[in-house]
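call fold(seq) -> tokens
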Amino acid sequence: MLSKWIKVSAAVLLILFTVLSFSGQSQAASSTFVTKGNTTSKVVALTFDDGSDGTNINKILDILSANNVKATFFLTGSGAKNHPTWIKNISAKGHQLGNHSYSHPDFTKLTAAKIKSELDTTEATIKGLTGKTTKPIFRAPFGASNAAVLKAVGDAGYTHTIQWNIDTVDWKGVSSTQITDKVLNNIVPGSIVLMHTGAGASGTPGALPSMISKLKAKGYKFVTVSELLKLPAAGTKYTVKAGDTLYSIAKKYNVTVAALAKANNITNYNLIFVGQVLTIPSKVAPPPAVTVKYTVKAGDTLYSIAKKYNVTVAALAKANNITNYNLIFVGQVLTIPGQTTAPPVTSVTYTVKAGDTLYSIARTYNTTVSIIAAANKITNVNVISVGQVLVIPR
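ret:
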């Protein structure tokens, strides 16, 4: 009888041990706090925090593009809401996206549930605009974090919390020279440089060309945070380690368990083994369909509009409930059937006024300095004159 109870007790303990072990494995680890890359190679990651105004985004993007530099932008949900097109521009230029919260609160004063809400809302907003995830990198507002914050952030799927080892304090409005000197005097292999996109960081756009040129002269190469830390990307291979579960791996790479299992022909989600090499499926978001609209202008006919968009007059009329092909009016907005691309490029003109800069004009028309400069054959983007008529591509 005693022997029977011993066996039963042992079985119960084994079950409890297994359940507790599995529960412990499925929980995400705390986010890793990073101030710089652990490397002797001359690489540096330029990072920009974007708040609600994002005034200098297009200036920064133009300069980075001109110098063939990729950077990392930590985005807020409020910023994405206020200037969505600029956020799309950051993504379209191939820069890395990170999560910087939704409303920029001090995370050390929030509950774990509120932290998750801030991160999840921002992730959904950014992914909705760009089709790209902000995972696995996060930057704490004000740089404020502690053990509780790192745990909550890790549980939300952000494996790395990115601090910095060079703070330009550009948000204080310091000069371009001060920003450049701060970076050059403190640069070491693996440095992470903190800068900002907002109006307060007025010296940053002016500092970037010289900073980049001088760092290149010192032999430095520019990388994203993920490249600096060698963080794995979707589509790569992952070798299973002790303590891993299919659930924890899927969460780490921001893919579904089902997709991960399918990519590796796994039928039992609970059966993976140490040393097993898994393929991480790539997540490719289909481009959003664009409903193309056209506003009728003086001189337009239904025939000329149909020809412009390579559709039939009948199809154009049907899409807009037009029964008389000869009756359309100036200002009427037509839906172009079967089109998922933007309408042909048109342009407007703008007469330069006192106080204007090419940057302020580009911002007003939601375009880039380089596009306006090219359209007007401007070689020095800092030289425009009052009364000059500029063509603004639309």
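The chain is about 40% helix and 15% strand.
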